[in-house]
Amino acid sequence: MDDITKKKLSVDACRIRMAVIEGTYNAKSGHPGGSLSIADILAYLYFDKMNIDPARPDMPDRDRLVLSKGHAAPALYGALAYRGFFPVEDIKTLRKPDSYLQGHPNMNLIPGVDMSTGSLGQGISAACGMALGSKYKGDAFKVYTILGDGEIEEGEVWEAAMFAGNKGLDCLTAFIDYNGLQIDGTVEEVDSPEPIADKFRAFNWNVIEIDGHDFEQIEDAVNRADALKGPTAIVCKTVKGKGVSFMENSVGWHGKAPNEEEYNTAMAELNAQLAALEA
Amino acid sequence: MDVIKTATRDAYGKALTELGDLHDNIRVLDADLAAATKTGMFKKAHPDMFVDCGIQEGNMMGVAAGLSTVGYVVFASSFAMFAAGRAFEQIRNSIAYPKLNVKIGATHAGISVGEDGASHQCCEDIALMRSIPGMTIINPADDIESRQAVFAAYETEGPVYMRFGRLAVPRLFDTDHKFEIGKGVYLKAGSDVTLIASGLLVGPALDAAEQLKNEGIDAAVIDMATIKPIDRDIIVEAAEKTGAIVTCEEHNIIGGLGSAVAEVVCETVPVPVVRLGVNDEFGHSGPALKLLDLFGLNAAGVVAKAKAAVALK
Q: Which residues of B are known to be catalytic?
């Protein structure tokens, strides 16, 4: 990946993070921590990788993304808004009664959302169904899904993993957002999903382990996944709250909105990052 | 003339196979019960359009949801217990909330599962499915109606739950029967009480109406194959004309056809409604016909409820 692309994606990721802060602050609720941790993955997919067209969100052969960890909706909405699927200013209406921007993704109301999600473990099953559909159509498109590390404690994830491995769903790639924190504490304390990579390997998946904030590693992993037979899990080591200093690695920011002072501090940090990138 | 007896699950498998001959956008999923749900017939005829998901009903419903977004009409099958019961939340969140075009073929509903016993005798599925916004629920009475229900489900956009049985039941309808989603059908006119039945209780309701004649009670019979959306007009008409209603179903008396009818009657033309069904209890093992007798889900049971309803007028 060249420096220009890397810088451009860094700007896109920073804007996604600003949308996360803007949305959750205005909503006075939501999940900033796990949204910030996947901003770089979303920036790469939506601004570089995926075959999508904001003017034709229902394009039949578009690549799909299923946000299995649906509570990270603010990040997905940020990516879709800045990619041109709907106005960026609508981010401020997140979770409001008169807004189409639901607390968790709704495919019927929100342009660019490929699957309604929010109940953990269910998105990966839907992604398997889409990948099966792509296979019926001669691998017509790619299907990406993003799961939380806490989410993979759900049994349905492993039903889906077994299914995808056995059915040879080549076009399916799952990102595991391994930020190490869930609502009740660290994933180790609560119900450790480790060894994550070995588990997916045992279910007949390819596994690639990367730094989920490094665009070169993300791109390299996705390109490798594209070339491999069978589904691929990309286990992404990430920082929950990434990009906002006081939210980083703090379990308290899983499901809490910033107050006005915190909002101002967070936006000042992100604006400084943006200015540095654009300098 | 011998009465033709067919389990509605057999009719389901045959209808799917016919649909597969006609349409290439149909896909059928099962969870290791293809031989029992009769999707195995479809699998044999259309192996490339069938996917066995293994014993994972929750994932199967999610796969069905995702597959439908790509443009397929997906039929997902298991026993009622594991479809509506185990996979309730996947049906609710991944299929019904996004209004996806998934048809759930749930077989082995009710106590007529027989020897397998209570763990497999689902008498709660209609209650569960009724509580989901936008879900269409069909419980056909015989093989003719089952075939038509499967074809209607294919033609209807959005989620549909179809309830089929394991036990062979007598054919009630001619091939010119016209099943329509959301419409009850009068099988017999009457003036004293209306028996509103679904599934395998439609036959006993008809038999009961004959027996009631001898007791001087003129009973009307309605086949209510669609539980949701319920046919309000025909219920209101029945309440107005006969002043008493008996509901007959192989389901818990809580949350099923009886509840659906009572809700309409209470809000429109309040008249006595007496519910025949499984009385909020679990089933147990035994031959299906013996169990139906033990639970009073037969013509004698309908007759007793009809008399009780008339007495309340």
A: 57
Test A160 with B62 for CB contact under 8 angstroms: yes
**Which residue of B68, B70, B90 is in closest CB contact with A122?**
B90
pTM score, whole prediction: 0.97
Provide the pLDDT confidence category of residue B1 given band limits of 50, 70 and 90.
low
What is the extent of the structural domain holding A268?
Answer: 3-278
Distance CA A112, CA A90 (A): 14
- CB atoms B69 and A129 under 8 Å: yes
* CA distance linking residue B139 with residue B257, whole number of Å: 10
Pairing of strands A181-182, A172-178: unpaired
**Token digits of residue B244:** 């008493």
Residues 6+ apart with CB under 8 A from B105: B12, B16, B37, B39, B75, B76, B77, B83, B150, B162, B164
Output the domain CATH number for residue A242.
3.40.50.970
**Architecture field, domain B5-170:** 3-Layer(aba) Sandwich (3.40)
Beta bridge partners of B185: B223
Q: Rounded to a whole number, what is the distance in Å from the CA of A135 to chain B's nearest CA?
A: 10
The half-sphere exposure of A88 on its side-chain side, counting CA atoms within 13 A, is 13
For residue A3, the one-letter residue type is D
- For B232-279, the pLDDT digits (tens) are 999 999 999 999 999 999 999 999 999 999 999 999 999 999 999 999
Tell me the average pLDDT across A116-138. Answer: 98
CATH class label, B185-311: alpha beta
Q: Write the residue in A118, A129, A155 that is nearest to B67 by C-beta.
A: A129
Residue among B246, B249, B197 at smallest CA distance from B217: B246
Contact (CB<8Å) B72/A115:
no
Domain boundaries, chain B: 5-170, 185-311
Taking CA atoms, A261 is separated from A95, A264, B20, B236, in Å, by 21, 5, 61, 60
Tens-place pLDDT, residues B187-240: 999 999 999 999 999 999 999 999 999 999 999 999 999 999 999 999 999 999
Q: Answer yes or no: do A132 and B64 touch at CB < 8 A.
A: no
Contacts of B90 in chain A (CB under 8 A): 122, 125, 156
Distance CA B42, CA B18 (A): 8
| Residue A108 scores a pLDDT above 90 | yes
Task: State whether A160 and B54 contact (CB < 8 Å).
Answer: no
Contacts of B82 in chain A (CB under 8 A): none
Number of domains in chain A: 1
Distance CA A80, CA A87 (A): 9
Amino acid occupying residue B176:
D
Q: At residue A131, does pLDDT exceed 70?
A: yes
Rounded to 10 degrees, the C-alpha dihedral B161/B68/A65/A111 comes to -90
Q: Which residue from B minimizes the CA distance to A121?
A: B59
